[in-house]
Design a protein that fits this description.
CATH architecture: Orthogonal Bundle
Strand content: under 5%
CATH superfamily: Farnesyl Diphosphate Synthase
Number of strands: 2
Oligomer: single chain
Structural class: mainly alpha
Distance between the termini: 17 Å
Number of domains: 1
Shape: globular
Order of helices and strands: HHHHEEHHHHHHHHHHHH
Strand order of the largest sheet: 1-2
Helix content: over 70%
Mean pLDDT: 93
CATH class: Mainly Alpha
Largest sheet: 2 strands, antiparallel
Number of helices: 16
Radius of gyration: 21 Å
Low-confidence stretches: none
C-alpha cells in the first residue's frame, strides 16, 4: 500500500473539515452538547481506514488515474471519492458505537466505548438517575448523529459529480450497504439467542450468512463498489470488484473472528477472549461444535456467552477450540477465500496501479494482528 498513508491523510482531513462545520452547529445550540462534539471527534480520529482505502482503489481501478501524493488535496476530480471514503468511515464509527451498546462492550481500540464515556460523565457530574441508562441512551443518540452525518458527507461529495447516473448508482450502493449491515447485525444477535432451537447442521451456514451481511459486504465489497460506481464502472468492472471484494471480505471477517478469541489485548484494544464472553456464534464456534465430542460441545455451549468468564476459563475454551482443529480450518478458509479474490484480481479489467494496491490491501486485511 505505497500510497496508503497519504490517502488516509486526505480522508482524515476531509472528516476533520466536515466535523468542524457540523460540530459548530452543536456548539451554537448549547454548550451542554460539547460531549457530542468531543466524543464524535474521538471516535473518528483513529482506525486503519480500510473501508476508505477500498473505496478509493475501487475508484482508481476504474478511473485509472494512479495517485500523486504531491497533488494538492488529491485534485478536485477526487473530491467525490475522497468524500465517499470519508462517509464510509463516519458510517463505520456510527456502527461501532451502536455495536458496543449491543455487545455491552467496555472498550473500543483500547479506550472506553461511547456508552461508557457517557456513563462516566454522568457519574462524575453527580446527575440524577442511573449512569448506565444515561450512558446507553446518549451513545445511541451519538451513533444516530454520526449515521446522519455520513449521509450528509456522501451527498456533499456526490453533488458536484458531473455523471449524475454514477452519483445515483453510488448513493444506491451506499443505501443497500446500510440495509445489509443492519440486517446482518440483527442476524448476529439472533444467532446468539436462537441457536438453541436450530439444528447443529445449520449453524455453519447461518454463521456464514452473518459474515457475509454484517461484515464482508460492508467492509470490502460495498466500499469497492461505491468507489467504482463513482468512476462510472462498466458492468464487467463492477462484477470484478464484487468478485474480488466478497471473498476477501469473508476472509477479513474470519481473521477478525480469530482475533476476537485469540487476539493480544495490547494490539486489539479489547480483552482477550472477548467474543467468548459475548457469546458470538461465529464460524469458528460453528466449526468447533462440529468437531468436538458431545461432552466438550455441551461445556462450550454452557460457558459461551458468560460475561463473568475468568482468565482460566477463557484459556481452557481457547485450547479446546484450537485442539479440535477449528482454528486450522479457519486458516484454510481464509487462504481459500484470499486465493479466490486474488484470482479475480489477476484477470480484472482494472488499472495496473489499482491491482497492485488492492493486492497489497488483501494481504494487509487478512494477515493483521489487530
Amino acid at each position: 500500500m505505497a500510497h496508503g498513508s497519504r490517502l488516509v491523510d486526505l480522508v482524515h482531513a476531509r472528516i476533520e473539515g466536515f466535523l468542524a462545520e457540523r460540530t459548530s452547529i452543536l456548539r451554537s445550540i448549547s454548550p451542554d452538547l460539547e460531549p457530542l462534539d468531543a466524543f464524535s471527534k474521538r471516535f473518528l480520529s483513529g482506525g486503519k481506514r480500510f473501508r476508505a482505502l477500498f473505496c478509493y482503489w475501487g475508484w482508481d481501478a476504474v478511473a485509472g488515474r494512479g495517485f500523486d501524493p504531491f497533488e494538492a488535496e488529491g485534485g478536485r476530480d477526487r473530491f467525490p471519492v475522497v468524500s465517499a471514503a470519508a462517509a464510509l468511515e463516519v458510517f463505520h464509527a456510527a456502527a461501532l458505537v451502536h455495536d458496543d451498546i449491543i455487545d455491552n462492550s467496555d472498550t473500543r481500540r483500547g479506550a472506553p466505548s461511547a456508552h461508557r464515556l457517557f456513563e462516566g460523565l454522568h457519574a462524575e457530574s453527580g446527575w440524577a438517575g442511573s449512569s448506565a441508562d444515561f450512558g446507553r441512551a446518549s451513545a445511541i443518540l451519538l451513533g444516530d448523529l454520526l449515521l446522519g452525518w455520513s449521509d450528509e458527507l456522501l451527498d456533499e461529495g456526490l453533488e458536484p459529480l458531473p455523471d449524475r447516473q454514477a452519483a445515483r448508482a453510488a448513493r444506491a450502493e451506499f443505501v443497500r450497504m446500510r440495509a445489509e449491515v443492519t440486517a446482518g447485525q440483527y442476524l448476529d444477535i439472533l444467532e446468539e439467542r436462537a441457536w438453541v432451537v436450530q439444528s447443529d447442521e445449520e449453524q455453519r451456514t447461518r454463521a456464514e450468512r452473518v459474515i457475509v451481511y454484517k461484515a464482508a459486504k460492508y467492509s470490502v465489497e460495498s466500499p469497492l463498489a461505491i468507489g467504482g460506481t463513482i468512476a462510472g464502472a462498466t458492468t464487467a468492472q463492477l462484477d470484478a470488484l464484487r468478485g474480488f471484494g466478497l471473498p476477501l471480505g469473508i476472509a477479513y471477517q474470519l481473521r477478525d473472528d480469530l482475533l476476537g478469541v485469540y487476539g493480544d489485548t495490547e494490539l486489539t484494544g479489547k480483552p482477550s477472549g472477548d467474543d467468548l464472553r459475548e457469546g458470538k456464534r461465529t464460524m469458528l464456534i460453528a466449526i468447533a461444535r462440529e468437531r468436538l465430542a458431545l461432552g466438550q460441545r455441551r461445556l462450550l455451549d454452557e460457558l459461551l456467552g458468560d460475561p463473568e468468564l475468568d482468565a482460566g476459563q477463557v484459556s481452557m475454551l481457547q485450547r479446546t477450540i484450537s485442539d479440535c482443529g477449528a482454528v486450522d480450518e479457519i486458516e484454510r478458509l481464509i487462504a481459500d477465500n484470499v486465493a479466490r479474490a486474488t484470482a479475480v484480481l489477476a484477470e480484472a479489467p482494472f488499472s495496473q496501479d489499482a491491482r497492485a494496491e488492492l493486492g497489497a490491501l488483501a494481504k494487509a486485511v487478512t494477515r493483521r494482528s489487530s
